[in-house]
TrEMBL record:
It comes from the Bacteria. PROSITE patterns: MR_MLE_1. It comes from Rhizorhabdus histidinilytica. SMART domains: MR_MLE (SM00922). It catalyses: D-mannonate = 2-dehydro-3-deoxy-D-gluconate + H2O. This is D-mannonate dehydratase. Its EC number is 4.2.1.8. GO terms for molecular function: magnesium ion binding; mannonate dehydratase activity. InterPro entries: D-mannonate_dehydratase-like (IPR034589), DgoD-like (IPR034593), Enolase-like_C_sf (IPR036849), Enolase-like_N (IPR029017), Enolase_C-like (IPR029065), MAND (IPR034587), Mandel_Rmase/mucon_lact_enz_CS (IPR018110), Mandelate_racemase_C (IPR013342). Residues 128-257 form the Mandelate racemase/muconate lactonizing enzyme C-terminal domain. Pathway: Carbohydrate metabolism; pentose and glucuronate interconversion. SUPFAM superfamilies: Enolase C-terminal domain-like, Enolase N-terminal domain-like. The keyword Magnesium applies. NCBIfam families: ManoateDhtManD, PRK15072.1.
Length: 402
């Protein structure tokens, strides 16, 4: 069996997505997601100019050897561009292998470990009252877990508060939007939000919050301690995680569950966090972690330390990633939760898929492979459109973490 052809498809049904499609001499094809928000063309070029030429003629069944070839053979290892490109090829090869075996990907991985994949949705609002109402709307939609993000008094913009309600897309301009941040205003505000939420809805639903890399470790410890009475499912990206040691300081001050990893791209980024039990959930998604092949290694290491998965699932990860993630989530023994930001109808038309939402869970469906394809005719309707993620500065102008 051999790979006959492979192509990169860049499309922008409301936001940019990069997809790899691999065709074989057996007439079976596979697709993989390579989307890296704000750097899509870098990954597309890495694939088109450097990886795909080396792929043609190889046996698609040799997934591990191909992964090692592109990881070790590149000499320059790791990083979001490299690993997103490898991830897309890997996802497509696992898609092909499952199709050749006439089975859903979760069966190839080891079979289902659960009947449904618990997901969390994103409720956001300009202020506390609007956010509280939005959480209620998500409860009404059947969500059992809801992330709450609110505008912050005194700040013009806050992370996670989108334009409109169902689709949050932060890449909002052809050059980076400059936003202002103030930690004091944030820390004075967030406990009030969760006090209102628990007061209104009680403790029946999981509540989550994303700090989005905005605090120093001791500030994260302080916030965690302030939020403990509200029983959050997790506090995400409490501090930038380049220094994995920083989470030791947070752990000394709070028992709030910690989630991190959507910006990681190999096991090396989280090895110390996991082995020292400095986190409770690892969020590195299949599109970022070099695909199914490497993500299995991360999940297995995490399982040794009772760290659970909680994969990133924002709108800037395509339905292909969501499909592959749901198969992985269905199998992985140390599953925690899956992020689920709904895509727009235009995006869903470009990426027909088998997964569906019911009663707070996503179900991957029983289609063979990972259950997601790309409609090339639909994709061709939406040419690439430059879009950057914002940047953040402190009020004195100092560059900060967006
Ligand atoms: C966020 C993302 O979903 C999340 O947890 O951190 O929305 C993140 O800001 C975007 O994926 C960046 O492109
Ligand atoms: Mg996040």
């Amino acid at each position: 069996m051999r790979i006959d052809a492979a192509k990169v498809i860049v499309t922008c049904p409301g936001r940019n997505f990069v997809t790899v499609k691999i065709m074989t001499d057996q007439g079976v094809h596979g697709v993989g997601d390579a989307t890296l928000n704000g750097r899509e063309l870098s990954v597309a070029s890495y694939l088109q100019d450097h990886l795909l030429p080396c792929l043609i003629g190889r046996d698609p069944r040799r997934i591990e050897d191909i992964w090692q070839y592109f990881y070790r053979g590149a000499y320059w290892r790791r990083g979001p561009v490299t690993m997103s490109a490898i991830a897309a090829i890997d996802m497509a090869l696992w898609d092909i292998k499952a199709k050749m075996g006439n089975m859903p990907l979760y069966d190839l991985l080891g079979g289902k470990s659960r009947e449904g994949v618990l997901v969390y949705g994103h409720a956001n609002g300009a202020d506390i009252e609007e956010t509280v109402d939005e959480v209620g709307r998500y409860i009404g939609l059947g969500y059992r877990a809801i992330r709450a993000q609110s505008g912050i008094p005194g700040l013009a913009a806050a992370y996670g508060v989108g334009r409109g309600k169902d689709y949050y897309e932060p890449a909002d301009a052809a050059l980076p939007t400059e936003t202002l941040w103030d930690t004091t205003k944030y820390l004075n505000f967030v406990p009030k939000l969760f006090d209102r939420l628990r007061d209104r809805y009680g403790f029946e639903h999981h509540l989550l919050h994303d700090v989005h890399h905005r605090l120093r470790p001791i500030e994260a410890g302080r916030l965690g301690k302030m939020l403990e009475p509200y029983g959050l499912f997790w506090l995400e990206d409490a501090t930038p995680a380049e220094n994995q040691e920083a989470f030791r300081l947070i752990r000394q001050h709070t028992t709030i569950p910690l989630a991190v990893g959507e910006v990681f791209n190999t096991v090396w980024d989280c090895k110390d966090l996991i082995q020292n039990q400095l986190i409770d959930y690892i969020r590195t998604p299949v599109v970022r972690a070099g695909g199914i092949t490497h993500l299995r290694r991360i999940a297995d290491l995490a399982a040794l330390y009772q760290v659970q998965t909680g994969f990133h699932g924002a709108t800037d990860l395509s339905p292909v990633t969501m499909g592959a993630a749901l198969h992985f989530d269905s199998w992985v023994p140390n599953f925690g939760i899956q992020e689920y930001m709904r895509h727009t109808p235009e995006t869903d038309a470009v990426f027909p898929h088998a997964y569906h939402f019911a009663d707070g869970y996503l179900h991957p469906g029983d289609a063979i492979g990972h259950g997601v394809d790309i409609n090339e005719a639909e994709a061709a309707k939406y040419p690439y459109k430059p879009a950057y993620l914002p940047v953040a500065r402190l009020e004195d102008g100092t560059m900060f973490n967006w």
